[in-house]
Specification:
- By secondary structure, the chain is mainly α.
- The protein has three domains: 2-78, no CATH class; 87-169; 173-274.
- 60% of the residues lie in helices and 5% in strands.
- The chain contains 13 helices and four strands.
- The protein has helices spanning 47-60, 68-86, 88-97, 104-123, 131-143, 155-167, 172-181, 188-207, 216-230, 236-249, 253-258, 261-267, 269-274, and strands at 2-4, 17-20, 23-26, 32-35.
- A four-stranded antiparallel β-sheet has the order 1-2-3-4, with no helix packed on it.
- Strand 3 (23-26) and strand 4 form a beta hairpin.
């Protein structure tokens, strides 16, 4: 018989547990606690492991410890995941701030929203992605080159990003990236104008029955193209042609028809015509 100090008898509370013929047995009252599935020598364990072992014994009941090790592993895993997930939002927010596109407040709101979406996705079998992976997908998405070979682009993460950005009305980071793609000078006035067009175009598309949340980057690119064209003309027809020309020149010709920009600019003709020319 080998005396152990890691277990506790569920019947009398004694810690005088021994291994006898392949089973855990209480030396004080003789209760058989269950079979030993890992008969390697057990040494004195730390308080945390002892607590986990006792909890697993209670959960499995007397004489039914076949899943003892699995129960202990699961408990540790759940505790580790809980601690890890508690800091997930903070880690994701820091990663988003690291892109240079988000303020601390914007990154915090976006991280919280994304975490909620990822938890729902996780219930459907999709693992919660690492913050670094989320940032890689975001950078690919706003680069306009996410189909390039070698780029990491997970469609589920991209969908979560699009949904969260639109829901939180975070157009400024997208406009900043779109301005870079279309070689526009993102002055404060220009940015404000482009963000305004993002909001108006999103509302226009949604009211037209189009799932606009799927195209946040295209909306930002269109808004920047319109704002850039508006620096040179206030005439609606000229504005349409110039916007279409900018989009085609930088490889986004399909955006004009996809987002029905001709009709959109016709609709906002009044506000566009009465607004001051951007500097």
């Amino acid at each position: 018989m080998e005396a152990l100090t890691a277990l506790k008898c569920w019947h009398c509370g004694s810690e005088e547990i021994v291994v006898d013929d392949g089973e855990y047995v209480c030396r004080r009252c003789g209760t058989v606690l269950g079979p030993v599935h890992q008969p390697a020598r057990l040494t004195r364990l730390n308080p945390t492991t002892r607590r986990l072992l006792n909890r697993a014994m209670r959960m499995n009941g007397a004489g039914n410890t076949g899943n003892l090790q699995a129960s202990i592993s699961k408990t540790r895993s759940q505790r580790g995941n809980g601690e890890d997930m508690a800091n997930y939002t903070k880690r994701l927010a820091r990663a988003l701030i690291g892109t240079g596109d988000f303020s601390e407040e914007e990154a915090g709101r976006l991280a919280e929203r994304l975490h909620e979406i990822f938890k729902v996705m996780n219930k459907n079998g999709h693992p919660i992605p690492k913050p670094e992976t989320v940032v890689e997908v975001y950078r690919a998405m706003v680069s306009g080159k996410y189909n390039e070979r070698g780029r990491k682009y997970d469609m589920h993460i991209a969908g979560a990003l699009r949904e969260a950005l639109v829901a939180l009305n975070l157009w400024r980071p997208l406009v900043k990236s779109a301005a870079s793609l279309l070689y526009a000078e993102p002055s404060d006035g220009f940015m404000e104008n482009a963000v305004k067009y993002c909001e108006e175009l999103y509302e226009f598309l949604t009211s037209s029955g189009i799932q606009a949340w799927k195209f946040p980057m295209y909306i930002a690119i269109a808004a920047v193209a319109i704002s850039k064209a508006e620096q040179y003309t206030r005439n609606t027809e000229e504005l349409k042609k110039l916007t279409q020309g900018y989009l085609a020149a930088y490889g986004y010709a399909k955006v004009y028809e996809l987002l029905n920009l001709g009709e959109f600019m016709q609709k906002i003709k009044g506000s566009a015509g009465n607004s001051e020319k951007a500097q």
